[in-house]
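Dear H.,

Thanks for agreeing to be a second pair of eyes. The structure we're designing against is below in token form, covering all 483 positions.
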């Protein structure tokens, strides 16, 4: 006979969160920059065990908890496949001269004083066109990080500009998955949702661009002509550089705009990079892999899973031109699996719902309800480690209350994006934060204060909520106390 399951108390729900915060703080204190390469994973698994022990105490069966963990991990498998494909793509695009060509042209065109603002704007345009912050970061973002290295500019500020632009475009693009998911959960129309988001999104982006311009004017980058000339010379000595090598990038952007699913699109882009390397980088391929067709094919195959390593005699250039491969993403996969395990236990056993119920009870006004929604989305990003969960769970939990108070569904859908989509890359163990770390090689803990759009937008949304700006109502709220 099954034991009766007790509803978790608020203390039950708080204990795993406190344990997680304490362990993550200890991880960063003891291991510093290496905390994401094992220590954070242990912290997440130990916290999941604490949550599971509390659930067992409340009458849950281990078999049911385990099923929840498996389901939670399965949610992230799509992201894992994309991660592996992105690793392969970065490797072959380095070998094909696609990324080196982008770096070369970027060094020729971009001025250090406008670099951060230009980076943010370029990523915003690309992300808006293709509807994917991940693809934008893995392509244009990687190249711009290389340009920043060439100009001697801050990697953290550049990564923050990439993330800001990529998520602005992703948030308002009708091609974006999250932009379609939020109104679907809230019950609003896609284009009404996008129009309503403009009130918080556009001012936030303009403010971010202004600050990036000011950062650029005060930048201490080493943009000496000798440094840049050395990098440009190294690029042309090791790669055939031309606009023709941007064809794999154009092909990927076209596939994304035609709404091809991310995994096959990115993997096709990686394979196309391998073909381009064989066709146009023959000298480099022979130098790294040896003479003959078999040796060349073996090199491309190796690049797909293990990336590329180039020695030019210039340490900066070697860092820019080496990396990629599926193996470079395995630590991120490990982090995502551990984070999703913790989030799954919290959700499956009702601990997360218990935490959120307290927020809902404290939200008396429309403004406080919207602020509570945004805070819940941020909390879900931290606890469940997945932006989709941070949209779906609060959407389901708050939808009825928005209807009861006569608030239009676009208020909820906008809040889900302001709190869920935007803050996901700021959490190091979230799927989005871990992905950006793997692609840009800068930890969210380092770029968080430079991801200006991602910081400004939720704050502005809360200010709007309490001031009553652009809160749309359907009808007078129904009578009766809040549930």
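And this is the sequence the design step returned. I haven't edited it by hand at all.
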């Amino acid at each position: 006979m099954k034991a009766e399951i007790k509803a978790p108390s608020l203390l039950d729900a708080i204990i795993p969160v406190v344990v997680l915060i304490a362990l993550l703080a200890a991880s960063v204190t003891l291991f510093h920059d290496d905390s994401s390469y094992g220590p954070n994973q242990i912290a997440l698994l130990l916290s999941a065990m604490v949550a599971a022990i509390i659930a067992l105490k409340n009458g849950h069966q281990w078999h049911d908890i385990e099923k929840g963990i498996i389901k939670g991990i399965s949610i992230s498998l799509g992201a894992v496949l994309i991660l592996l494909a992105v690793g392969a793509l970065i490797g072959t695009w380095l070998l094909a001269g696609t990324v080196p060509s982008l770096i070369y042209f970027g060094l020729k065109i971009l001025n250090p004083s406008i670099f951060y603002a230009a980076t943010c704007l370029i990523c915003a345009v690309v992300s808006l066109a293709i509807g994917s912050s991940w693809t934008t970061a893995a392509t244009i973002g990687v190249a711009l990080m290389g340009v920043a290295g060439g100009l001697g500019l801050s990697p953290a500020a550049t990564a923050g500009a990439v993330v800001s632009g990529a998520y602005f475009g992703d948030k308002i693009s009708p091609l974006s998955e999250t932009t379609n998911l939020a109104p679907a959960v809230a019950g609003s129309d896609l284009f009404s949702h996008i129009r309503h988001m403009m009130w918080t999104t556009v001012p936030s982006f303009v403010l971010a661009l202004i600050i990036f311009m000011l950062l650029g004017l005060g930048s201490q980058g080493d943009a000496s002509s000798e440094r840049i000339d050395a990098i440009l010379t190294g690029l042309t000595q090791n790669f055939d550089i031309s606009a023709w090598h941007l064809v794999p990038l154009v092909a990927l952007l076209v596939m994304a705009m035609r709404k091809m699913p991310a995994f096959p699109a990115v993997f096709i882009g990686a394979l196309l990079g391998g073909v381009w390397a064989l066709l146009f980088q023959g000298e480099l391929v022979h130098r790294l892999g040896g003479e003959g067709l078999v040796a060349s094919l073996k090199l491309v195959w190796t690049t797909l899973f293990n990336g590329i390593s180039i020695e030019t005699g210039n340490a900066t250039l070697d860092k820019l031109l080496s990396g990629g491969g599926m193996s470079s993403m395995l630590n991120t996969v490990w982090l995502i699996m551990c984070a999703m395990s913790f989030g799954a236990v919290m959700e499956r056993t009702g601990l997360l719902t218990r935490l959120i119920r307290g927020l809902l009870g404290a939200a008396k006004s429309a403004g406080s309800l919207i602020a509570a929604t945004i805070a819940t989305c941020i909390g879900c990003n931290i606890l469940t480690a997945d932006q989709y969960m941070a949209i779906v769970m609060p959407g389901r939990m708050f939808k009825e209350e928005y209807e009861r108070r006569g608030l239009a569904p676009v208020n909820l859908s906008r809040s889900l994006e302001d709190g869920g989509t935007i803050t996901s890359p700021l959490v190091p163990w979230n799927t989005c934060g871990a992905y950006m770390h793997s692609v840009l090689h800068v930890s969210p803990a380092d770029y968080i204060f430079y991801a200006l759009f991602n910081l400004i937008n939720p704050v502005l949304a809360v200010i709007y909520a309490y001031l009553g700006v652009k809160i749309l109502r359907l009808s007078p709220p129904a009578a009766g106390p809040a549930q």
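Two observations from my side: Residues 477-483 have pLDDT under 50 and may be disordered. Residues 190-217 form the longest helix (28 residues).

Warmly,
E.
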